[in-house]
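Worked example

This section walks through a single chain of length 233. The input is the sequence exactly as stored; nothing has been trimmed or padded.
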Amino acid sequence: MQLRFLESAARTVLAISILALVVRGDPPPDMRAVMEDLVGGTPGEVALPPPAEQIPSPTLPAPSAEPTEEIPTGPPTWIEAPAIGLYAPVIEVGYTVTTVDGEEVVQWQVPDEAAGFHEGSAYPGRPGNTVISGHNNIGSQVFRNLDELQVGDEITIYVDTQPFRYRVAQKLILREYGATAEERRENGRWIGPTPDERLTLVTCWPYTGNSHRLIVVAMPAREPEAGASGEEE
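Given that input, the structure is written out below as tokens.
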């Protein structure tokens, strides 16, 4: 995949070109449908690359083997990151397909007054990549301070009143202007489907130039089991 973001005259478009997935105007994949294939479909039918690096999460406890009750979910409606003063609505956004410099480009709509949940990406609490993008220096600048997040900081996504908590596991600044096609393909992997549950936030960087893309990856922050204090009596 090739990740490419373009400036819009209307200042409302964050554009992503996915060469491997967008052919002659075909839409990008529905990540939730892809995850159904990955988790419960026929092996080998969907071949998706993992992120370029394994995202470390040493502080996150291993998932419990005990079956848990499935929490109702859906498109996220609110995002909070207290460490950077982020409190903003989230709305689901779609895309259009256009041609830029001879390439098929998927343009995701990014609202000025909110963060945008990418239609087709994973719902919070489900396996897969929940992708949310936002402006950093135009509109309401919902992701203005995203670069100040640190590993371990908490991010909470709400689906109506249901919270889903994550902790930052990795932060990357990826070159966009002047990047090679191979670099853009590698960059694009960060917003693609994943077999594990994660949250990916995307914005431009720096505040004064937009020459790079800032990617923040957060993993589920599971509550410790009752009585698991880690101390022997």
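What to look for: Residues 1-27, 34-65, 228-233 have pLDDT under 50 and may be disordered.
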